[in-house]
Amino acid sequence: MALMDLPRPGQIAVKNIGPFDLGRLARLHRGCFEDGWSRSDIAHLLSLPGGFGLIARCFDRGFSAIDGLRGVGFAICRVVRDESELLSIGVLQSWRHRGVAGTLLEASMVRAHQAGADAMFLEVAVDNVAAQSLYERYNFKRVGTRLDYYHRPDGRKISAYTMKASLHGPRSLPGQS
Ligand SMILES: CC(C)(COP(=O)(O)OP(=O)(O)OC[C@H]1O[C@@H](n2cnc3c(N)ncnc32)[C@H](O)[C@@H]1OP(=O)(O)O)[C@@H](O)C(=O)NCCC(=O)NCCS
Fold first, then answer.
1. What pTM does this model have?
2. pLDDT tens sequence across 119-176
3. Ligand 1, atom nearest to 90 Cα
4. Which residues of 42-58 are buried (b: 16+ CB within 10 A; e: fewer)?
5. Residues with beta carbon inside 6 Å of ligand 1?
6. Homologous superfamily of domain range 3-166
7. In the chain, domain spans
8. Which of 25, 129, 134, 136 has most ligand 1 atoms within 8 Å of CB, for mutation?
């Protein structure tokens, strides 16, 4: 790696999820959700036509990986013809409020648009105010409500909003001109 390419503190690097990332991704998912998805759940989603995943990595001085980059967040999406869906997004608790989810969401929208989608849909629990704020910031609008959509591990059922964003001309990825 050239000196110029060394990661900097605060930098958020986004890369495609490959087969060697499945274990890391399942650990990240478990770190973000009470009912985390297994490695095989994730492998199944990514193997569906149009499925893709992104992982966000941040420089962590104490991390022993050769490049010092730690996986801190992820997004999993699917593109079907001219529509796409954000299936899951999460950032580890200690790495939140640094723009990681925003970077992942923007990269997902650009990638889905490049794959032919004109719109992105998602579901978000009605009590997940943090995620709703994130999505609104990226121009997602509420287009419906699904009653009792999520079944929480404690047995509660929670409704979800369906949100939609147009992908016509999404902003370019951070760092790209
Ligand atoms: C929702 C989540 C992905 C946000 O991750 P993050 O990396 O902290 O988000 P970012 O730092 O990129 O924030 C981008 C914007 O989202 C909104 N936002 C993020 N966290 C927020 C919070 N706790 N309260 C209110 N708004 C919030 C803000 O508008 C923020 O912009 P700002 O920092 O300029 O105010 C993270 O809290 C998470 O992983 N939660 C658990 C998993 C989850 O709920 N996933 C979504 C399922 S639908």
1. 0.91
2. 999 999 999 999 999 999 999 999 999 999 999 989 999 999 999 999 986 554 443 3
3. 39
4. beebbeeebbbbbbbbb
5. 32-33, 89-91, 96-102, 124, 128-131, 133-134, 137
6. Gcn5-related N-acetyltransferase (GNAT) (3.40.630.30)
7. 3-166
8. 134
